[in-house]
Amino acid sequence: MENNLVQPLIAAIISAAIAARSYRKKSLDFSGAISGFAVMTIHIAVNYRFGAVLLVFFFTSSMFTKFGEDKKQKVDADFKEGGQRNWIQVIYNSGIGTILVLTVWTVAGSEDYCLNSKESSLLTFLIGGIIGQYCCCNGDTWSSELGILSDDQPRLITTFKPVRKGTNGGVTKAGLVAAAAGGSVIGVTFVALGFVTTNCSSDIALKQLLLIPISALSGLCGSVIDSLLGATLQYSGFCSVRNKVVGKPGPTVKRISGLSILDNNGVNLVSVLLTTVLTSFACSYIF
Question: What is the C-alpha separation between 228 and 269, in angstroms, rounded?
């Protein structure tokens, strides 16, 4: 019984420390810190690799969010110091992954597995979905946070016409490369730890390396889906008073693109869901 409690206890201690630090550093507001603590605890308690993937996403995204804050403040109408995220953003960026993590726990407990459809197609599908969730979120965040700092002229993904920085659906070459890099980091983390935590045959273990290019594609795919949704279902307009691109129409706002159907959280949720499903099927087919 004591052994069964060790991992959840470690998970709670690590999560509490990270949540408290993130609140002090303004990466999370109070509601974000509480929800972040719960999400982190679940991931780490179920499987250390799941926890590592979540933490790599959180720390790298928070780090890049803080890059070039002075420049971003001049462009981003919703700029917050430190990129402070609330509970809604935490849930939208990790809710699907958390559900999948809990599902894996009900199926296999905390035992670690290699991706191998011949041994368990369900676990391979579920774990592929978890990877897809965080490849999408990490890729999209890296793309947004680093792309906006690029000197490249953003182009609307649906028309390829030049648009102002901060326009939903605007993409740059630097942003697309960053999205693939953000996804690949998730894959590298999961695969590298797997060599230590799993006990698979040499051929199956070697095959896990294919997850890295899959993760890079998932990060890129998630970012592209996010941009397509942002360009079509999310409103972008230029406010002549604030001199910034904004997400809501108004008397001083000239429309650039999109419809007021989804907000940023809605776009994130749909892109995560689609990328999760696509990555699950890709892993099931390849592994």
Answer: 13
Alpha carbon 38 to its chain centroid, in Å, reads 17
Instruction: Count CB atoms within 10 A of the CB of residue 153.
Output: 11
With a cut of 50, say whether residue 1 has pLDDT above it.
no
Query: Cα–Cα distances in Å, from 281 out to 2, 127, 131, 167?
Result: 38, 11, 12, 32
Task: Over range 119-137, report the average pLDDT.
Answer: 94
pTM: 0.90
Q: Which long-range contacts (CB under 8 A, 24 or more apart) does 172-176 make?
A: 172/147, 174/146, 174/147, 174/150, 175/143, 175/144, 175/146, 175/147, 175/148, 175/150, 175/223, 176/143, 176/147, 176/220, 176/223, 176/224
Using a 10 angstrom Cβ sphere, with 0-12 exposed, 13-18 middle and 19 or more buried, the burial of residue 143 is buried
pLDDT tens-digit readout, 234-246: 999 999 888 888 8
- Band (pLDDT 50/70/90 cuts) for residue 149 is confident
User: In the numeric block, which tokens belong to residue 11?
Assistant: 């998970």
The token pair that represents 249 in the structure block: 């129409």
* 131, 279 Cβ separation under 8 angstroms: yes
